[in-house]
Amino acid sequence: MDIQTKVTRTFQVLLIILLLLWLIFQLVLVNFYTTTVERYQAQALTQIEQRAASLAITQRELVAAKMQELDRILLTMRDMIRNSGFSSPQIRDMMLTRKGFSDEVADFLLLDQDGEILAWTQRGPAPDVSDRDYYLWHKNKEDDHPYLSQPSMSRVEESRHFIALSRPVRSDDGRFAGVLVAAIDIERLARSLGELAYLGEMTTVLARDDGTIVLRLPYIEQPVGQTLASIVAYGEQLPQRDTFIVVSPFDGQSRQVAFERTPHWPLVVFVGEELAPVYANIDDFTAREQQRWLMVSGLVTLFMLIIAWLLWRRHGIEKDLKAGQRALAELNQRNLAIVEAMPDLLFTLDAHGKFIDYQAGEETRLLLPPEQFLGKKLSEVMPSQVADKAMVRIARVIQTGSVQQLEYDLEMKGEQHYFELRMSHLADDKVLAIARDITTRKKAEAQLTWQATHDSLTGLPNRVLFYDRLNSTLSDSRRYHHRFALLYIDIDGFKPVNDSQGHAAGDQLLIELARRLQQCVRSSDTVARLAGDEFAIIIRHCEGQEVATKMADKVLQAVAQPFVLDAGTVQVSASIGIALGEGEGMDADRLVHAADAAIYEVKDQGKGGYRLYSER
Questions:
Q1: Could you count the other beta carbons within 10 Å of the beta carbon of residue 220?
Q2: Regarding predicted confidence, which is higher, 371 or 383?
Q3: In whole angstroms, what is the distance from residue 606 CA to residue 608 CA?
């Protein structure tokens, strides 16, 4: 075999090896591309699923709190009717008073054992409701449980949809004597629950656990009373919570849906978010990845061809090298252009935290001009606490090679800004760091959390946060065996001010009341607004009833002082119920019920005082 043939065969073998390597590398690239796209899609869908699940929990708590509030009103009214023996006009006046405290209640009704209306909050002829499901349900049941009816159309106001929350009324010997009903206006209930429903593309559906739709947010009348197929599909095996993707029958949009069953009530809260924007982002990401991996594939193919060309034409080495250098320079220039267009700050650090290189986009916020970063250490340009945390992560990146992340805040031009710092390992103990301004996201998260747990008018904790802190106080009481107290405060005379001088004056009075109550307590105590003119104070460390009564006296004095409003000077008083707790054998609902019962003892004796609850 001559040298020429041997060289030719060697070249052919090398070409075959190059071709096999090229095919293997293409398969690897395809695998990387597929894995990257699938991971991004999974992360995007997981994020929207988690967001929907989180909002479903929050909305479930709001629904449960609202239903418990309305049921508590029914229980209070029933006890007053059963114990006091009011006449029908007196019962109607009491119903009208309680109706003023709950915007969602359209009417209160008291039925006798035959379904005839004894008293209700409207005037005129009473409709026949003896065929309503709430009356038939209690008539055929011997328990004392509340009942939540199917959505129905009012027989007095035909355009009004309502659901009825009812409790049975029984005689002293336990016989069925009638039904006390709260007709809840579905549209008003939707308004009170709608704060979280309008974020982005979110949609909320409240349904019974048998599939009947109660309301939809944003509110429309069309689906009320229809059957929600998503519940029916579970049959009798409806879990406590679940997530799934469904095509909405209302608008044909694909949505990520999460639902939560409401404890103690036959209600299910569905929260759905449109997937169209997510799918669009996934398609954009897929297109970018295709372009990126095709470019890599092209470069690999070019590299293989260059090697083959070098084997075939050795004399073209210098020419091919120059062409490769030009291609690399163009690629580097393109990468620099991409980096400059990014709103983030990119810089290279060594193991000691010294800035080696940087690249800042036009919108990047810096503590110093860019040219003053080079050659300085983190500790020279950033606060010491932030610099120390960053140095720990730099060491971890170099040791493990894994990406590290740090969130920190800085005061810049009198404003607090939040940043996310991501660091990855480069060669020679160098670290590539990317700083991104996440101030907008942090503020949005903080605002969402505050709105879900505070009263928008007074800024006090709302019912959700109140129960959270009350349960926390109970837990501490059980663990450390200390006593605490709950003061339930009802403002006497607020409704006349609100009715005669307007809602603006009423709001101004509530704000001033909140301020005075906060001045009465310690920093460890909690003042909350529960509903309307009802407030509560949690005294965390209360070693005797004297502490609670002194606090009640202090509150009474503060409330009794005149209130100077824009519409004039007014005076109100307070009725306070006090319940003491030691943790064992006591829960939040029992404490609130005890304090509420003590309030009614004060009101029965003329209002404007306090009473310590005691079991009799």
A1: 12
A2: 383
A3: 7
pLDDT tops 60 at residue 342: no
Q: Is residue 348 part of a domain?
A: yes
The CA distance from 193 to 206, in Å, is 10
CATH number at residue 373: 3.30.450.20
**HEC string of 327-365?**
HHHHHHHHHHHHHHHCCCEEEEECCCCEEEEEEECCCCC
pLDDT at 200 over 70: no
**586 shares a domain with 503:** yes
Q: What is the pLDDT of residue 550?
A: 92
What is the side-by-side strand order in the sheet with 202-208?
213-217, 202-208, 267-274, 254-261, 241-247
Is pLDDT of 248 > 90? no
Give the whole-angstrom CA distance, residue 469 versus residue 543. 19
Which of 238, 267, 299 terminates a domain? The answer is: 299
- Taking only the tens place, the pLDDT of each residue in 507-530 is 999 999 999 999 999 988 999 999
Q: Do residues 219 and 285 both lie within one domain?
A: yes
534 Cβ contact partners less than 8 Å away, ≥ 6 residues apart: 101, 488, 489, 490, 491
Instruction: State yes or no: pLDDT of 616 exceeds 50.
Output: no
Predicted local distance difference test score (pLDDT) of residue 334 = 64
Q: Which residue has the tokens 């293409």?
A: 26
> How many separate domains does the chain show?
3
Q: Is residue 312 part of a domain?
A: no
For residues 161-173, give the mean pLDDT.
91
Handedness of CA 411, 412, 415, 419 (dihedral sign): negative
| Position 428 in a domain | yes
What's residue 193's pLDDT? Answer: 81
422 within 8 A of 431, measured Cβ to Cβ: no
What's the pLDDT tens digit per position in 16-67?
A: 898 888 889 889 888 988 999 899 888 988 988 898 899 889 889 999 999 9
Identify whether residues 351 and 459 lie together within a single domain: no
Neighbours of 138 (CB within 10 A): 26
Q: Domain for residue 183, yes or no?
A: yes
Structural domain boundaries, residue 395: 342-440
- Long-range contacts from 582-590, C-beta under 8 angstroms, 24+ separation: 582/477, 582/481, 582/483, 582/484, 583/474, 583/475, 583/476, 583/477, 583/478, 583/479, 583/481, 584/478, 586/474, 587/474, 588/467, 588/470, 588/471, 588/474, 589/68
- Please tell me whether residues 471 and 596 are part of one structural domain: yes
